[in-house]
What does this fold into?
Amino acid sequence: MEKITNDFNKIPAEKFAFVNRGEKLTDTKFVDKPVGYFKDAWIRFCKNKGSIVAAVIIMFILLFAFLTPVFFTRYDQTFMDVYYAKKPSRNLWLSEHFGIATGTTTRDFNERSLITKIGIGIGAEDHDGTGTVTLEEGMASYYQPMKEIGEGVEITGLIGAKDKTIYTCTLDSYLEFGFQYRSIEQDEYKKIRDWEEKTGIQVLYPLVEENEWCLDPTDANYWYKTKKGTPVKLNKNGKAKEIPYEPGMVLEDNYVRDAEGNAVYYTFTGGGDLDTAHYKVRVLYYNYYRYLNGFEPEYMFGTDSQGYDLMLRLASGIKLSFLVALAVSAINLTIGAVYGAIEGYYGGTTDLVMERITDILMNVPFIVVATLFQLHLSGKLGPIPCLLFAYVTTGWIGMAYRVRTQFYRFKNQEYVMAARTLGARDSRIIWKHIFPNSLGTIITSCVLVIPGVIFSESMLSFLGIVKLGNETTTSLGTLLSDASSIWMDYPHLMIFPALVISLLEICFNLFGNGLRDAFNPSLRGVEE
It folds into this structure.
């Protein structure tokens, strides 16, 4: 021993060196502070960027659904205007400042229909019924639906028909309705006149004569003289000359006039006194809408096939889908947790019998159950309770299976055996010791139920199995169903509800995956 010590003393100190001094031994960070279960899950969830983005999008959609009726629209759920059905999005501020949401659409017109639409703007500028408004004045009118007229394309060689010219035009779909005949009470007529005087906005326009030069007495837009639909101008001998579409075109009016040549704005149609007497009048519907509602028509997402505000209907559909999905998830959690806990904890014969029951229910097609409930119970209970019953009939089975699996996993752990040894009752062991350890899987399952319910509810209402469309309530599937046959002409009816459903499905699945990883007990305390 003395010799060995002496040998070490002969080795110079500079020959010695520390191993890995100042170097990193491992990438693992050791947590030296106790972290709670949910706090640990929250820390790991926040590191999943995809799940965070999905959660933000879901929250935005929820805020949209609940705040839109309060802050983002002037209409209520019962407001409907059939004359503005299937219209594209329109917002005056966005249109003026950014050139979007203009309410315009592109359409092809022949010469006759083109003049009819142009005539709306010309007639709107003829406030006194003089019939002297020029084409240029009409095209500059605020009420002119034709915003841009393309070059005419000659179509020749048509079998059995004359050659014609087709114009591709940009049309303001909110102004194209033009004029309309209305029957109003005498008192209402006076109110409109007072409103016109107060605002300077004209609603009432001269009536059109029902004579040989009136193409259609029911269409208030044919205020000019026509022959077989083509505008004409009469010479001194009363002969008609066709008026083609060209610069400087002047349409000859066909207004009703009194003995002094003044335009007539109303005619008496019946009634006995100030309150019951009715007048037939001709109104510019755009301004008549403003008179009735106090504002111009603006629909951020356009209108649906019936004339409701599509943004409001979309918000209503999202709320309905969320509420149904949350109710189904809560009910399935309650039934499935109790059923699965009993199966997994007791096992043996109890588990065998209960599993056979779930096997039978699992093989019953959901769509058949939903259809039968709607056919036989919706008249008494309503479509939504019947839909909930259909989901609850078989929807809890998946939850029960997951809870059963978790109980089989944990029921033989040492802490469970210790609790049983100390005399804990079965109910306490189930709900105080085993169930909390299964909570992560259960929460994840509940979240992943929501997109499935939203999708299946939309499918059922799209197919017409569940009727959820009325003046106060609708669903995303109903909106898609209404748009299914006309979406090529009105794509916004399909785009908005389809986009919302797609976002909800993708985001809920990403959100659920994030929760699954966050509540995974094998990752507890691990820093990524």
Summary: The chain has two domains: 51-69+308-523, 90-293.
